[in-house]
Specification:
Helix content is about 25%, strand content about 30%. By secondary structure, the protein is of the alpha+beta class. Strand 10 and strand 11 form a beta hairpin. The longest helix has 24 residues, at about 165-190. The protein is elongated, with a radius of gyration of 23 Å. The N and C termini lie far apart (about 55 Å). The mean pLDDT is about 95.
Length: about 325
C-alpha cells in the first residue's frame, strides 16, 4: 500500500501510550506534536517528573504541549497552527471537546485497551482482569463526543492468562495497539479505512479504579479474590488485615483443593504454604505479599519468625 504520510498530532501520557508513539515516529507519517498531561511530582522527594510520552518526544525533537486546560482558545489555536491531518489518542487522560475533535482533517482515532463495546471507559484492562475475562484486545476507533462510542476501524484480540496481572496484560496490549494503529493510519492516508458501528446492546463500562476497591471480602469465591489481586495492580492493590495489621497482596494462586474451614481463616501457614479459605470452600494460596510500609516478600519470607496458627481469621483490609 503506497501512502502519503499524514501530519499527526498525538495525545497520550503514560507508558501505555509509548509503543504507539514510537511506532508512529518510525512510520511514514510525521508526528508534528505530542500533547500530554502536565508533569507531576512523584516519588519520596516529590520531584517534578516528565510524562512517559514527553520523554520520548523530547528525545526525537518533537514539540510537546502540556496544557492544564484543553478547552481554552490559546490551546485550540496552537493545535490549528500545526495543521494536523489526523489526531491519535492513547490514554491521554482527559475527554476531548468537540472543538478539538473537528480540527484534524481526517478526525481523531483512539487506541483503546479492550474489545469494544466491552469495557468502555478509563480502566478497561483492570476491569477485564477483575471480571475474570479470558480474552481481551485492542480496538482502534474514531473519537466522538460520547465516551469510547465511536465507530471501530480495526481490532486485535489476545487471551488473558489465568495468573496474568493488569500491568502484564496492558504491556502486551500496548505493543499490539501500536502495530494496529499504524496499519489504520496507513489505510486512512490511502482512503481505504472502513468504519464499523459498535453494538449498543453489548456495551459495558470500565470506571476508574478507586482506592477502596482493594479490601478483600473473604466470603467471595476464591477465583473472584484471585482476580481482584491480579486486577488491582499496580495500584491500589488488594489488601487484608492480619491480627489488625494491613497487608497488601501481590500474587496469589488457585490450587483447586477444598476445605470446610470458615471463609478468611488460615488453612496452612508454614514454609512456602500460606493458604486461606475462601467463601466457596476453595483454598487460595498467597505467594507474595507486603506488610504496609515494608517491602514485598514471598510467603516463606513473611512467615519466617511469625507464628500464624491455622484457624486465625484474616479480616477485610
Amino acid at each position: 500500500m503506497v501512502t502519503t504520510g499524514l501530519r499527526i498530532i498525538y495525545f497520550g501520557t503514560p507508558e501505555f501510550a509509548v509503543p504507539t508513539l514510537k511506532a508512529l515516529i518510525d512510520s511514514s507519517h510525521e508526528v508534528v506534536a505530542v500533547v500530554s498531561q502536565p508533569d507531576r511530582p512523584k516519588g519520596r522527594g516529590q520531584h517534578l517528573t516528565p510524562t512517559a510520552t514527553k520523554t520520548v518526544a523530547v528525545e526525537h525533537g518533537i514539540p510537546v504541549l502540556q496544557p492544564e486546560k484543553i478547552r481554552v482558545d490559546a490551546f485550540l489555536s496552537a493545535v490549528r497552527a500545526l495543521r494536523p491531518d489526523l489526531g491519535v489518542v492513547a490514554a491521554y487522560g482527559k475527554l476531548l471537546p468537540e472543538a478539538l475533535l473537528r480540527i484534524p482533517r481526517c478526525g481523531m482515532i483512539n487506541v483503546h485497551g479492550s474489545l469494544l463495546p466491552r469495557w468502555r471507559g478509563a480502566a478497561p484492562v483492570h476491569r477485564a482482569v477483575i471480571a475474570g475475562d479470558v480474552e481481551t484486545g485492542v480496538t482502534i476507533m474514531r473519537v466522538v463526543k460520547e465516551l469510547d462510542a465511536g465507530p471501530m476501524l480495526a481490532a486485535v484480540s489476545r487471551p488473558i492468562g489465568p495468573d496474568e496481572t493488569s500491568p502484564e496484560v496492558e504491556r502486551s496490549l500496548a505493543r499490539l495497539g501500536a502495530t494496529l494503529l499504524v496499519e489504520v493510519a496507513d489505510r486512512i492516508a490511502a482512503g481505504q479505512a472502513a468504519d464499523s458501528p459498535q453494538d449498543a446492546a453489548l456495551v459495558t463500562y470500565a470506571p476508574k479504579v478507586a482506592r477502596g476497591e482493594g479490601a478483600i471480602d473473604w466470603s467471595l469465591p476464591a477465583a473472584a479474590i484471585h482476580n481482584l489481586v491480579r486486577g488491582l495492580q499496580p495500584w491500589p492493590l488488594a489488601s487484608t488485615r492480619l491480627s489488625g495489621d494491613r497487608v497488601l497482596l501481590h500474587r496469589t494462586a488457585l490450587e483447586g483443593d477444598r476445605t470446610s474451614a470458615p471463609a478468611g481463616s488460615v488453612v496452612r501457614a508454614g514454609g512456602d504454604e500460606f493458604a486461606i479459605a475462601a467463601g466457596d470452600g476453595q483454598v487460595i494460596r498467597i505467594l507474595a505479599l507486603q506488610p504496609e510500609d515494608r517491602r514485598v516478600m514471598t510467603a516463606r519470607e513473611f512467615l519466617a519468625g511469625r507464628r500464624i496458627a491455622p484457624g486465625l481469621t484474616l479480616e477485610r483490609g
